[in-house]
Amino acid sequence: MDTNKTVAVIGGGIAGMEAATFLSARGITVYLIEKEDKLGGHLLDWERLFPTMRNGSEVVKFLMDGVKADNIKIMLSSKLTAAEKSGKGYNLRINENVDLFADAVLVTTGYDLFDATKKEEYGYGIYDNVITSADLEKIFMSGKALQTKQGNVPKKIGLVHCVGSRDEKAGNVYCSKVCCVTGVKQAIEIKQKMPYTEVFNFYMDLRMYGMHFEALYKKAQADFGIQFIRGRLSEASEDQNGGIILKVEDTLMGKPLKLTVDILVLLIGLIPAKGSKEVGELFGLKNGVNGFYKTTDQHTLTNSSNVDGVFFAGACTSPKTITNTITDARAAASTVAAYLFNYRSLERKIEQNEDFWLYNTK
Amino acid sequence: MIEEGKEKVWKDYQKEIAEDNYFYARSCIRQNFFPGSEVAFLRILKELGKNLFDDPRHTTCTGIAYHSDIVPFDTTMTVVARHFALMTEAGLKNFVPSCITSFGIYTEVLELWRHHPEIEQKIKENLLKATGRTFEKPENLAHSSDIIYKFRNEIANKSKYRLVNKETGKPLRVVEHIGCHYSKMFPEKGVGGAEYPLVLTGMVQAWGGEVIDYPERRQCCGFGFRQYIVQANRGYSVACSKKKFESMAPYKPDLILTNCPGCPYFLDRWQYVVSEMEGVTYGENNGGIPVFTYEELAGMVLGYNPWDLGLQLHQVPVEPVLDKIGVQYKKEDKYKGVNGKDLGRPESPSCLKI
Amino acid sequence: MSFDWFVLPFSIGALILIVVLISRYILWVIKLSRADRRKSWRSVFSFKLFQAVWEVFNESLLHRKIFRVNALLGWMHMTFALGWFLLIVIGSVESKFHKEKVFNMPYDPIFLRYFEHDVHGFWFAEGFTTIMDTILLLLLVATIMAVSKRFFKWIYGMKRTTKLHPGDQIALASLWLIFPMRFIAESFTAGIYGNGGYLTQTAGDIFATFLPLKSLELGAWWTYSSALCLFFLFLPFSRYMHIPTEVFLIYLRKAGVKTPDNKLTGFSEFETYSCSRCGLCIDQCQLSETTGYDDQAVYFLQKLRRNILQEESSHNCLLCGKCTNICPVGIDITKIRLLKRTEFAPEMLFNYRHYENVIHHDERKVDVAYFGGCMTHLTPKIKIAMTGIFRKLNIRYNFVDENGSICCGRPLKLAGNHMQARDLMQENKRIIIATGAKILVTSCPICYNIFKNEYKFDKIQVLHHSEYLNLLHKEGALKLTPNEEKMVYHDPCELGRMMNIYEPPREILEKSGKLIPVQKEKNFADCCGGSLANLPLSEDNRRKVSKEALTKLLAPSPDILVTACPLCKKTFSNVSDTPVKDIAEVVYERMIE
Amino acid sequence: MKTFGYTIQNDRQIDFDAADKKLYRYVAEKEPDINLCIFCGTCTATCSAAEFKNMSFRKISLFLRRGLTENLKREIESCMFCGKCTLVCPRGINTRNIIFNIRKGIEEYEF
After folding, report:
1. Chains D and B contact (Cβ–Cβ under 8 Å for 3 or more pairs)
2. Which of B239, B277, B279 sits opposite D3 (nearest CB)?
3. In the CATH scheme, what is the code of domain C353-471?
4. DSSP string, B200-263
5. Can you name the residues that pair with A49 across neighbouring β-strands?
6. Which CATH number fits domain D22-109: 3.40.190.10, 1.10.1060.10, 3.40.640.10, 2.60.40.10?
7. ipTM score here?
8. Residue A1 contacts D, CB cutoff 8 Å
9. Residue range C141-160, pLDDT digits in tens
10. pTM of the model
11. Quick check: C533 pLDDT over 80?
12. C479-592 domain in CATH 3.40.50?
């Protein structure tokens, strides 16, 4: 049931791939535009996934199976450089030399990882043995043993939750949603690889909202003896042996606590992608208070933008788990189809429900 | 430690420091604690050919009283405004306080006015009513340690000594300690920021020394106004310093360098107190760790007579540092006044080796 | 005097056994309290001795209790015990006739056939031979049953049989050998000399047709004697120690000796060694169902005997009392287990002095002091029901622990901390007496147990609320409108087996609605699994126990499950879809104002 | 030694590097449930003893982890062993057995 419709999907991560799959199934021609030379986005850098510890590569493979369709044109190492309204659709320019027309645009530009050097007091990029959760995944992916810079097997490892999230000082007041459970997952992985290493997670709240997340947390405590200490890291220092001295308040004890770890892992949050900003400027897309794209409504019109014919999917509108992203991508495909084929469902309106009052900003 | 990481941070925290023509605001307490320091500052700047006005009409900034909750902030702001008026009257635009607390107060006042011009307006009226003076805000506010930092290389070029152990040829190991109010409140107002401040580190590196990064580098010296002023709270004040000593001692520092009126005083005197109360010392051979102000250290590398710098007023003797560097000095002159008369000897501590 | 070298193994074995037994028994008697020792001496010269002999006959020889529970097992035990006993007694008489002496060698009756070839020695000699052959036949059948029980326990209706340790295995093997060897030895001799009865002579004649009996005869008697010797030597270190010990236990019990409430004495040694390891307790134990449990009463006692008892074994028990309930020997295993805990209990670290005078209540004169108990605060419907009943019936009452209370002390005792429980008990007693009430009503069977048994109130009657409500109903103060809801009643362990309160709750429930019986009730009722007595039991295993007990209770598909203990209620509520109510709630709902 | 009219304050900071985890390990071996505590405080809220005295199972759980044996001993002494905390624990922790084993451990190591 081929149609003559075309959609440009900007961003070849999870959301882009899954949305392209479902759009193509409706006979829509899809241009899947990815700036890197591979599809998969951040998922390519992640070894195992919470809560089941499935390999990320399996999900990539699943998504790749979807985008094999003939009517999906995969454009790698491609950057959108100009966009111009043309009738109901858009003329798009890729890499200064390729032009194409799309009846609708689906933006799936995802997120960036928080730059941990912004939390100077944690010493990332300054102390030898401070790494981020993303660095840790890369070490896991490489198959190499986790070691200190000095080449020792770490006896104690600390993981700090909410780095760059829920932190006005870091400029991000929102919850990144995935780090809590990533912290638990990585703590377990460390214990699985090094059973004699003590692992400490420092948290302000543990948000185990998803199905099986609580079970993972309980397993971390019961089977792996991971210690969860409620208190946000205030400052880290380096000792003479390259160990990292952590100062937190043990908030449940109401006392400051000092602990030296051999490796400190910062569970960095998700921030609006630089790419989102660039793409947003091309189309005149509105950003929400937190810098992610602003969807038309919080509850209902979650894939629609302020610009006619431009839609969103995935983590470009807010931090999302893989499960959420895939679901959102399929929803977005549906929404785009509704737009292209004039489904009545898109005619529905809802009164705007502003979120500014939550932040006391204008 | 990844040095490039620190250098990257330092690049992010650079501030503008005026080249010349300073209005100097002295500290209330430094002239008693370390009387040679401010004199040395004046001498150094003079030798550098800089123009500086040391106005005798200048008073306290009210910092101690303000932080002890005795003086309301409106009063503080009016006093500060008067100092700005003195600067304006002297035709100067670059304000240089000697005291870190003052530096903090001035910064705070200026920041407040920046956000709330109506308050500035009110203070202007207050000052006019009270003294008939008017003022312009300084174009540049820098602490006197910023000035020395700015001219650290010039000082290095003129220096007679370097911070190097003449026996071993190795750089001296220096603990740097900035005053809390230098950059912890407004990191962007201090050279290098608050986490990895560069102001003192820059001096040490320029003069040949090596800075130690020890775990408790952020910890306050314990001065804390109310902690020290109320006798019953002094145990808390000592505890703060003690925490620092215990943390830095394993690194075997040769000296501590400071840029605040309180810090050198407390880091110096509390070593004596801890030794008397608990019998513990932190330096080599049961001695202490000598503490210097940045002016004293600058004066020392420039080859000034240690006793002119007031180094004899330190509780922890500075001679080990002088000997390591190879500074020429006369032992017998240590307790002589300016007039050459003997000032007498302080009582010897019972534990701390002098 | 008849003699051959083969009598030596038997004689030496028997001698050693007697020495070991006597020395052990003396040791245990010394460990009795002075009062108990006095009781046991005095009873020798009283009617109690005859009572004891009668019970020994009934239980140790006839095994009546096992008969009642399991006839097949009873028969096996009876033929072994009574048969062997008769074999010895009749054999002795027979040998005395043959030897024409009152005092002969102790081995004479055992090996009589070897030494006495004349079957017509005296007037009733053939009669004796026939009787002895009959007894031997019964014993051989019992041996076959015993062997088959090991391998086909289902025949005897048992899910599990006891596991054996090496001492037991040797004793068991030698026991299995004794009667077949006696049969073979006697048959061989009969085959040669013609002195057998209908069994041994027939067998002997058959053996003679194909075996060189003359050369095998002595070897058979050696084997028989050796099997006896082996059995005697291993008896003190095996389950068969119960055979001689139970006789003394029965006597001591008749003499009025008991295990005291606060510590174990020599009496519990007699109890411990009286365990025949019949294994009836194993299937009773609800924890058997939960994985890997091997501390059922029989094994607990075994560990105790072998002095390898670990703390975990003493604590990993619900103390529901079902094993004590079923035990044919009547060993108070629950009490032994509880008292054993005191030996492991940490002594220090609890300090209750600061509870003195912290609790005050109003000074009104009241008739009834109501003590909800800690757990009742987690089941507020019980509180509401009880206070509602008091108010509606205009009973002057005082809710002693309305605003919190000191624990009754029983949970501490259940953990082995008897001394520390005393501090709590003293203070609690003071508070209760201060109310001036004449009746103390409690909703918690755990509190009830200790209030009634150990608080020793002079002027206060202690009642569980089920008793109290039943009493009010009988007096006519409390009137009920029954409804059609089908109810089953769960007997709380502490109220039922511990305190023997079975009827009052049933009586009042029958007046409130339709009480339907359940398969396991009264003294056979299951534990809910919530027991405070078991320290190490995990939450998962607790839930398993609860669910199993619940399934049985709900088999008749009742509308509600009624119990009389806040802990049982709370425990069942967590796993039950059928509403679980306390008896007080049921009464409160249905009372007429 | 002089006093100067004041004493040097002790650091309130818990030095977790120096903490003695012996007792915690002892208890965790006997009753691994201790690892499951999420410090929600339900136990403390229902505690019969807590109505009259400082007694918080949540704190006990923390003191144990942090090696603060003296605090632990003080906190634990009011426990009456009634078992309410076990009934309310959302993580199904066998709290009574933990208290019992803490006492055993303290005795064993003679703290």
Report:
1. yes
2. B277
3. 3.40.50.1860
4. HHHHHHHTT-EEE--GGGGS--S-TTHHHHSGGGHHHHHHHHHHHHHHHGGG--SEEEE-SSHH
5. A54
6. 1.10.1060.10
7. 0.86
8. no
9. 999 998 888 878 777 777 77
10. 0.88
11. yes
12. yes
